[in-house]
Amino acid sequence: MAQLSDIFASRPVLVDGAMGTVLYARGVFINRCYDELNLTDPGLILSIHEEYLQAGAEILETNTFGANRFRLSRHGLAGKVADINAAGVRLARQAVDHLKDKQAGDAWVAGAIGPLGVRLEPLGKTGLDEARAAFAEQIRALAAAGVDLLIIETMPALNEAQQALEAAREAAP
Fold first, then answer.
1. Pairing mode, if any, of strands 59-61 and 108-113?
2. pTM for the full predicted model
3. Which residues of 57-155 form beta strands (DSSP E)?
4. 109 dihedral zone (left: phi>0; alpha: psi -120 to 50; beta)
5. Do 33 and 87 form a contact (C-beta atoms < 8 A)?
6. Which sign, positive or negative, has the C-alpha torsion 36, 37, 41, 47?
């Protein structure tokens, strides 16, 4: 990890773009669970990762932005947190390994962690401990599958970002 931190300190690093936007542009409508595509249409996800690498991305975010128990429960998939996150890492890693076979240069896999999609206390019904546990569940799955780093992104509230960060420190220091 020291190598990656040295690179961040010395130069800009190009990260891939918005997976959801690309999926929508390719005809996957927003009523679908984009994270489930790691299991049901892995070829599509792999091809997008490969295109980002070909465009020069050095970091691929896993297709796991909404792969937490709260968001997945909307699609009846709350029990598949580990499977969906592991598949997301496997696909991004496969694209990175394929790149290494073709050309010199490094690329890394970042576990994407997005918001839970629920309001946290004091404005909502979901407790901070419950939120942190949901983030930790996802983060443990991403870490066990072998991500190089985590990206906590697009949090709508500071207290939610704080719970995600605390979960990362606890679950995958």
1. parallel
2. 0.94
3. 59-61, 108-113, 149-152
4. beta
5. no
6. negative
Q: Which residue has the tokens 């901070």?
A: 128
pLDDT tens series, the chain, 173 aa: 557 788 888 999 999 999 999 999 999 999 999 999 999 999 999 999 999 999 999 999 999 999 999 999 999 999 999 999 999 999 999 999 887 666 656 899 999 999 999 999 999 999 999 999 999 999 999 999 999 999 999 999 999 999 999 999 999 98
Angle at 38 between CA 139 and CA 169, to 5 degrees: 10
Contact 167, 135 (CB under 8 A): yes
Helix, strand or coil, per DSSP, at residue 105: coil
Encoded tokens for 130: 């419950």
Q: Which bin fits 163, alpha (ψ -120 to 50), beta or left (φ > 0)? A: alpha
Q: How many residues does the chain have?
A: 173
Distance of CA 60 to the CA centre of its chain: 9
Token readout for 55 is 């465009």
What does the alpha-carbon distance between residue 19 and residue 64 come to, in Å, rounded to a whole number? Answer: 10
Q: How far is CA 74 from CA 4, 66, 115, in A?
A: 36, 11, 14
